[in-house]
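Slide 14.
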Amino acid sequence: MRIGFALAWVLQSCAVSHNLYMHDAIPFQKGEGVSYLGVGTGFAPRLDSVSTAGNVYYTNKLNIMPNLCAGAQGHLKNNLSGRLSINFPFILGGIGCRGGLQYAFLPAASKFNVALGGDAGFVLSRGSIRIFGSMNAMNPEVAGITHADVFMPFTIQMNDHARLTITPRLCSQAFWIRRSVGDTRSYSYSPNAWGVSGNIRIRQVNMEMTILQVDGVLMPAVGVSRNWVL
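Slide 15: predicted structure.
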């Protein structure tokens, strides 16, 4: 408990979007699933300054920040699978959740597969939340983040131990920025983005890179995770 409290205290509080996607178009069979734990990067609004009166000033730009991510994916029905994950922005500076569905168009035995899916989620950074039994002040300038994605992964089963997946995606996200520190009112910076993800899974290790076009700027997100079969 004391170690967890110290770690949460020294790391900066922040609201960061969840961009470790873990795509794989090959469907799970009945009773199958996978869990994972990984580290990736996401995006946070770049704040310019806070006045002595507490007013928040920002421009429509984003910073790249780290995330600790954990999640699970598994079979629901036929070629339909479910996805659920949580993330801890700036490792332990907040908490977010994302869930979604994916449908694969070809059988699991196919060496090549394509799927269509969608995710929606949020990141909390409101006032304060309880982490490891302590009250840890969250980012006072950003109220939180909401986001939704539509994606179409294409997966090639290269051999028994390796898969390559390329995923085009459309993203809609809103960064809810407070008008002033501690104010319950907020306004949103809501850039729509599109891009492509590439990930390779070798045995139980997944390595991923995403390039998103956000308001005319190319933004990279990277991550690595360890999978466990459920």
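Speaker note: The radius of gyration is 18 Å.
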